[in-house]
Write a structure and sequence with these properties.
about 250 residues, 2 domains, Immunoglobulin-like
Length: about 250
């Protein structure tokens, strides 16, 4: 009679172990592996104005779509939200087909996810994101949809063009650094996706200032200041030396 409870306890223990082992196996299988994707190219067009229109084309190279619960089912990205610069009318396409982006707004940013399906390793996914940004006249500050997948960081694969209103010039600072300008068109060639583009502009003469330009100007001023100080010291030393020889 004493052995029966022991046998039952042993039996219950075996059943419990088998049940837990059986449950753990499919859970591990469902988790799977994360996808491996690279942002291989992007072309961004920004038409500045009181309502700025942004159209960005992205090209993603899929090395591995992942597996299980982590298989590639959407390409997500973030857009910063700035005061007095509202974002609206978000639309998207994937491989030329219109899709309904999943938009989640927070206080300072918004997440935008583009659904994808049946993606295989070695494939290229092309996506387009378009939206409008309202801003004050003469002040462009447009957030850019920054995908979760980054560039390789070895080549300048991000091309961006900003078109200012007719007759406008850049006033004040610009971010990112402008690589070239032709009339009212600003061009950028970048290694990575910037989180936003910012330009102050207006009618009449202006200046194209950015972090790189300001750093260069500061460096030149510093060099000329050092050279000027050295020349002044040299002249004074020569003059004092001449006076000593006369005495």
């Amino acid at each position: 009679m004493r052995t029966e409870p022991t046998h039952r306890l042993l039996l219950y223990s075996i059943v419990l172990v088998v049940t837990l082992a059986g449950a753990a196996t499919p859970i591990a299988a469902q988790e799977g592996s994360a996808p491996a994707v690279t942002l291989s190219a992007a072309e961004i067009q920004v038409d500045a104005g009181e309502t700025t229109e942004v159209t960005a084309n992205y090209e993603f190279t899929v090395q591995d779509p992942g597996s299980g619960e982590q298989v590639l089912s959407a390409i997500s990205g973030t857009m910063w939200l700035f005061p007095d610069h509202g974002v609206s009318d978000v639309s998207a396409t994937v491989n030329g087909e219109s899709v309904e982006p999943a938009v989640t707004r927070e206080d300072r940013y918004m997440d935008v996810a583009l659904p994808v399906s049946d993606v295989s390793g070695g494939e290229t996914v092309e996506a387009t994101v378009s939206y409008s940004v309202t801003s004050a006249p003469g002040s462009l500050k447009a957030p850019l949809w920054t995908p979760q997948f980054q560039t390789a960081g070895t080549d300048r694969v991000i091309e961006m063009t900003v078109s200012l209103p007719e007759g406008s010039n850049v006033h004040g600072a610009a971010f990112p650094k402008v690589d070239s300008r032709s009339g009212t068109t600003l061009s950028y060639d970048l290694l990575h996706m910037p989180g936003f583009v910012s330009v102050d502009y207006g009618q009449g003469g202006g200046a194209l200032l950015d972090v790189g330009t300001l750093s260069t100007l500061f460096g030149l001023l510093l060099i000329f200041g050092i050279l000027g100080g050295w020349l002044a010291w040299r002249r004074r030393a020569v003059r004092e030396g001449g006076d000593a020889n006369v005495i």
